[in-house]
Amino acid sequence: MTAPTGRRERKKAATRQKIAEAALRLFLERGYEAVGIRDVAAEADVAVTTLFAHFPSKEALVFDQDQDFERRLGQAVTDRAAGEPLIPALRREVQALVRHCTGDGAAPIWRMIDGSRTLLDYEQSMRLRHAESLAAAIAADLGLPSATTACRTVARFVIDAYSLAREAADPEAALDEIFRMIEAAWAVARPTGDAPAGPAGA
User: Fold this and answer.
1) Where's the HTH tetR-type domain (predicted)?
2) How far is it, in rounded angstroms, from Cα 100 to Cα 92?
3) How far is residue 80 CA from its own chain's centroid?
4) Same domain for 123 and 162?
5) Tell me: the pLDDT tens digits for 30-76?
6) 70 and 94 part of one domain
7) Parent domain of 76
8) Domain total in the chain
């Protein structure tokens, strides 16, 4: 997560982190369904209103990096070096996200998510939102007034690449395979006027 700069922002970030850690601890100890919002607030030693000021729902407590992931994917498009192709830039960011979500201690969290219909539905809606946000960033980068079908399709592919690689026995090999297909598809489908930025295409 990006480090906040001001004292007030740092304090808010610390409170948010404390709540997220308390929630995860309780969820893993007791089970997601068995823990209520009041339980989390008490564990984190904050008021329920404070908890909701940082997290809009119980599900959001599990996916506390949601907004940061969405922002990072957009920045992979907007902040890449001049002339750097789009797809390799996205691959690099997805690779970083996959490493984060397959690190030590991640397996019990994903088992909890996979065992909850509520959390799986939330994750699905989150992925769709990330894909729409990424499609908008790609369209803006190309100077388009709105996301085209090609922009939305490649964005969906990129978000799905993250999920598929995270679940693979060899995430790195899975990313290599998936992004070869994404790059080939983008080379054919990218909107007219999007000239390649390098040998691999933009």
Assistant:
1) 13-73
2) 13
3) 18
4) yes
5) 999 999 999 999 999 999 999 999 999 999 999 998 999 999 999 99
6) yes
7) 66-189
8) 2
